[in-house]
Amino acid sequence: MSDSDSLDPTQYRANRLKSLELLRESGINPYSEAPRNIISIRHFISKYAYLSAGEKLEAIEVSLAGRVITKRASSSKLYFYELLDGGARVQVMADARDSAMDTVAFSTYHSGVKRGDIIAICGYPGKSKRGELSIFPRSLEVKALCLHMLPRRLAVVDGTRTQSSQGTTTNGTWTPGDARNPAAYVLTDQETRYRQRYLDLMINPEVQNVFRTRTRIIKYIKRFLDDLEFLEVETPNMNLTAGGASARPFTTYYNELDTNVHMRVSPELYLKMLVVGGFNRVYEIGKVFRNEGMDQTHCPEFTMCEFYMAYADYNDLMDLTEQLLSGMVKELTGSHKIRYHANGSDNEPIEMDFTPPFRKMDILSELERVANINIPRDLSSEAANKYLLDVCEKFDVKCPPPHTTARLLDKLVGHFIEVSCINPTFIINHPEIMSPLAKSHRSAPGLTERFNLFVNKIELCDAYTELNDPVEQSRRFTEQLKDRTSGDDEAMVLDESYITALEYGLPPTAGFGMGIDRLTMLLTDSQNVKEAILFPPMRPQ
């Protein structure tokens, strides 16, 4: 351990700031421009992995750049670094005999290089006598100083650091769909990890792979929909009415329009307007904003994928959902089965199977069967409301006011049905009172052609055959208004512009919505949604 590493963090930063000032006074720019002809460490590893132990290609010039993760001095004339960039690591063997500096200048300069610094190297490839692929610098230059002390211990995965003579990758043995162990990370404090995600990514390299997996998930969805001739579109983030979902919106003020507007809770209504306009298959992946609580699976700002398909119904979408998710899991993990710490990281992970077909449950029939109750058929009646309220009290199911029938049903379904949905399960045929935008069921009065997909007790998808009757849609909005007046600020509001669009004729259409953050949670063994969001919202410090 160097003398500087024994300092407290405040003194360490003060010393580094002083070093920065001395560099500038001596005419050295500590933040100079990027070097030319840099290649990635991954490319370097793949290109020169064939070398034999002790073999060096001194006639070849290679330029690398990255962050110093470890540093070790064998003597004043030989320094070893580990360089990290783009998810890969490589050893740097800086020998004074390869440098244009004299030995005193060489030792002085390398003594000033610290862990965390960004450096650029021009040198030649080779392998050490022990067979580790390395770059041997002829020149090494610090391009950006890290002013803060980094944790001493190397990042580990499952208790080991994965390394070979071919170079090192930062994800160790972890792959999407497998279990993770964040307790083994170097940086474990969640507050620090989420507030300073750059530090989390730097110190806990497995986290990089979590977010690379998130990107792969989004790319897979886009490719899947593009191959089915869907058109990717963008719709407004600020709306005059917060329609498309039962949720409380964020509200802001639009100065130029001199009016209050709402951050969108869903892009649904705009996307269906595009179907009216002739885009028969459209999708959007983007942020939505719901001014509600935060917990392990809920975040007020989250990413949704929504798509709408003309001349289709919810049966078609169940088939598409099975194809999309089973295919994605297979491509990302190599299997239809994934492991997930559903009961906390201290317990053994469970296995979830995405092999199609997925299980189906009829929502009311299953609720009556499991709870041994008999729900009144007229769910709009006072008798049905009182019956469901009594059931909640009997089974100690908490439902904060207002006690609308839709809210009571939702709480009972969560208590009795959702808890059994570990493998992917479709809960189908929701009552109209719970589904203001869904089309009435073709053979079951009072119900709709809607499904939710649950995995590990968490709702992942919501989809339905779209209601395209403007008169009936207006009536449904009016019913929602009654819930709002009773205190349910998550009930939908009337959107006249959407009704007008329906009056021009919406083809028979099916619509689908899926949370990207929750899907990423499942495929990366993340028990907190903040693990799947690069910069999650945090309470002010």
TrEMBL record:
<protein>
    <recommendedName>
        <fullName>Lysine--tRNA ligase</fullName>
        <ecNumber>6.1.1.6</ecNumber>
    </recommendedName>
</protein>
<dbReference type="InterPro" id="IPR002313">
    <property type="entry name" value="Lys-tRNA-ligase_II"/>
</dbReference>
<dbReference type="GO" id="GO:0006430">
    <property type="term" value="P:lysyl-tRNA aminoacylation"/>
</dbReference>
<keyword id="KW-0963">Cytoplasm</keyword>
<dbReference type="InterPro" id="IPR044136">
    <property type="entry name" value="Lys-tRNA-ligase_II_N"/>
</dbReference>
<dbReference type="GO" id="GO:0003676">
    <property type="term" value="F:nucleic acid binding"/>
</dbReference>
<dbReference type="InterPro" id="IPR004365">
    <property type="entry name" value="NA-bd_OB_tRNA"/>
</dbReference>
<comment type="similarity">
    <text>Belongs to the class-II aminoacyl-tRNA synthetase family.</text>
</comment>
<dbReference type="GO" id="GO:0005737">
    <property type="term" value="C:cytoplasm"/>
</dbReference>
<keyword id="KW-0030">Aminoacyl-tRNA synthetase</keyword>
<dbReference type="InterPro" id="IPR004364">
    <property type="entry name" value="Aa-tRNA-synt_II"/>
</dbReference>
<keyword id="KW-0436">Ligase</keyword>
<dbReference type="Pfam" id="PF00152">
    <property type="entry name" value="tRNA-synt_2"/>
</dbReference>
<dbReference type="GO" id="GO:0005524">
    <property type="term" value="F:ATP binding"/>
</dbReference>
<dbReference type="Pfam" id="PF01336">
    <property type="entry name" value="tRNA_anti-codon"/>
</dbReference>
<dbReference type="InterPro" id="IPR045864">
    <property type="entry name" value="aa-tRNA-synth_II/BPL/LPL"/>
</dbReference>
<dbReference type="InterPro" id="IPR006195">
    <property type="entry name" value="aa-tRNA-synth_II"/>
</dbReference>
<keyword id="KW-0648">Protein biosynthesis</keyword>
<dbReference type="InterPro" id="IPR034762">
    <property type="entry name" value="Lys-tRNA-ligase_II_bac/euk"/>
</dbReference>
<feature type="domain" description="Aminoacyl-transfer RNA synthetases class-II family profile">
    <location>
        <begin position="211"/>
        <end position="540"/>
    </location>
</feature>
<keyword id="KW-0547">Nucleotide-binding</keyword>
<dbReference type="GO" id="GO:0004824">
    <property type="term" value="F:lysine-tRNA ligase activity"/>
</dbReference>
<dbReference type="InterPro" id="IPR018149">
    <property type="entry name" value="Lys-tRNA-synth_II_C"/>
</dbReference>
<dbReference type="InterPro" id="IPR012340">
    <property type="entry name" value="NA-bd_OB-fold"/>
</dbReference>
<keyword id="KW-0067">ATP-binding</keyword>
